[in-house]
Design goal:
With 233 residues, this protein is α+β, with helices and mostly antiparallel strands. The chain contains 7 helices and 5 strands, in the order ααβββββααααα. The protein has a 5-stranded antiparallel sheet, covered by helices on one side.
Length: 233
């Protein structure tokens, strides 16, 4: 993590007062607005004798007495002393940011089209694995050895697909697609092209493949596509 210069500067401006714990707390409080993923808009200060900043939650007030600067609470019931004006402003900014963030609910980012497509493919493979296993067990029950063997092979194939999808889901993508993702997309297209899937499964697989329509040109084969960084040779 790179510490912004602004965070370092406001930390340096914090006066060394109180015990070590309170001092460290003051430093972190002052630097906090510059260390968060969501940055709250900076307060705009006006005035010379009484320095004020209007915000949606109230007006911050700083005045000077001798060589010290006094920051008042929003309700003016208390105040804090600071050695510099910048330190007082930083404390006000930290208080303002904390109050604003406390009212913000950060929602999780929506999954990428790639993640959604892989999730659909994994569900499809899991369901097909379960169906093949069920049919294999039924064939074994009625001593249909050939059909049982065929279903076991189908179950193993779909189970292997599930493991590959999970492995791909855990891989970071820097540029383009990993080669194994390209291979999987082409294999899924080949299954889709047979037109032998049940209608509902056909539609689900078609939807999952849409996310790769541009990123993996339909006419290309795995060896004809440039491998992305980190892809196996």
């Amino acid at each position: 993590m790179n510490i912004p210069d602004e965070a370092v500067q406001v930390a340096l401006d914090v006066p060394v007062v109180g015990g070590r714990e309170n001092y460290i707390r003051s430093i972190l409080t002052a630097a906090a607005p510059f260390l968060q993923g969501v940055k709250v808009k900076a307060l705009e200060w006006v005035g010379k004798t009484e320095i004020k900043a209007k915000a949606i939650i109230g007006t911050y007030l700083i005045d000077q007495f001798a060589e010290k600067f006094r920051l008042y609470s929003l309700d003016r019931s208390s105040y804090q002393w600071f050695d510099t004006l910048e330190a007082a402003k930083a404390a006000a900014q930290a208080d303002y940011a904390a109050r604003v963030r406390s009212a913000i609910e950060v929602s999780a980012p929506a999954p990428s089209p790639r993640a959604q497509a892989l999730e659909e493919l994994e569900k499809y493979a899991d369901e097909k694995t379960a169906i093949a296993f069920s049919r294999m067990m039924e064939a074994q029950r009625v001593n249909d050895t050939d059909f049982a063997d065929a279903m076991e092979k189908e179950r193993n194939a779909y189970s292997d697909m599930t493991m590959r999808i999970r492995a791909i889901s855990s891989q970071p993508v820097v540029n383009g697609l990993p080669q194994d993702v390209i291979n999987l997309v082409i294999a899924a297209r080949e299954a889709w092209d047979t037109w032998q899937l049940p209608e509902e499964e056909f539609k689900r697989l078609d939807t999952a493949l849409e996310a790769f329509a541009i990123r993996v040109p339909y006419e290309d084969e795995p060896e004809a596509l440039p491998a992305s960084p980190g892809a196996s040779e």
